[in-house]
Amino acid sequence: MTTVAPPAYEEVTATFEPVIGLETHVELGTRTKMFCGCPTGFGAAPNTQVCPVCLGLPGSLPVANKAAIEATIRIGLALNCSIAEWCRFARKNYFYPDMPKNYQISQYDEPLCSDGWLDVEIDGELVRIGIERVHLEEDTGKTLHVGGATGRIHGASESLVDYNRAGIPLVEIVTKPIPGTGAKAPIVARAYVTELRDVIRSLNVSDVRMEQGSLRCDVNTSLNRPGEEWGTRTETKNVNSLRSVERAVRSEMVRQAAVLSTGGRITQETRHFHEDTGETTSGRSKETATDYRYFPEPDLAPLAPDTAWVSELKAALPELPRVHRRRLQSEWGLSDLDMQSVVNAGAVELIEATIAAGTTAEAARKWWLGELSRKANETGVELATVGATPKQVAQLQQLVDDGKLTDKLARQVLEGVVAGEGDPAQIMQARGIEVVSDSGALTAAVDEAIAANPEIADKIRGGNVAAAGVIIGAVMKATKGQADAKTVRELVISRLS
Ligand SMILES: [Zn+2]
Asked: 36, 229, 360, 478: least surrounded by Cβ within 10 Å?
């Protein structure tokens, strides 16, 4: 078999039109699980947050969690969905070791919320993403494959199951198919997940942390030639960061185009995204709904949310992120373009929190969009997990404002913050970083530099102040950049006038 180089992305989008779709799972931040009273905290010792109900022991009966139902309705309302006046849970039957009942309680043809939309902004333009449904289900446990090099089942010596996560309320949000985005499909997918995350966070119903798995995303992708029917779609599972959402769509578009261009067919299947290579590999062929033998859950009463209660929830929805951002933009005095770069960098909340910690909007924006964005790009992480907190950035700026750090030194300190060396003040002490403001030491350095450059000193004495740069540079070098350039300049000129 010969391998052919994959087509360039521009070639793919010139020949094919993508249709994407996103299924997002959000773990709700309720205190207890969906159908029992077990706690839901993250990171507890394995199998310490379990009971007969979430372990699926015979004779145990589920009771629905009202807080989870309320949270799901609020998500549905924020996404402009209709809320069902009557609906039921359903059993989704399949066998998997991390699902002790051998069925998952989910919702099938009667979702709690349906037919809504979410507007996302792409380069200043609104794209309306249709929402097919928002339904409530329970999470599964977690299987851990040990003994192998990769953490995958292949090569592992044993598999362990942790049921702490089993039964945590999970909301699934499914978009309608999204055609017509062309080459922007990967960006639209990312923007949608970002906006959805921000909406859910604003509702305060989940911490929506992709890296901890409380927000998980499956990406459907298909390609067709213009004018033809939509192609067969694949589903890329568990894409674990916003950046990966974009990369997964893009790489799947390129892979499918390569198959289609050589006369091949796309198989309907699930695929796995690999963070390291940015590519997807084949998982299993996709089950169809009939394989799951859905039927109404006989152990739970139907849900019939009171319309007055739903209206109350709707009236009490918070300001949604897009509205909130517009308000911040005017408060911060930013142009559309500047605000867009803040949004694209994922820096809105970080800047907001840095300002709340006592910094100006301008300074907060400078650090997050400058040095810290660069670091995040270099290491391939989200800005929020780059290693610096808004509080530390505010502390850093305070040290600059107090004259204890120059901009250049502040960047060195920030490097230490990102490396996890502590707060700015601790790093200054540990690394011995400080502005040389002791005028005795500075004057000595200035005098030395003047003595070493007699001809330039004469020029300055003769009124050619522009020549001072050479001597200032020599002083900065001698003090290893720890002097304030403005102070040095003043000293040089006063010594030579
Ligand atoms: Zn339980």
From this structure: 229
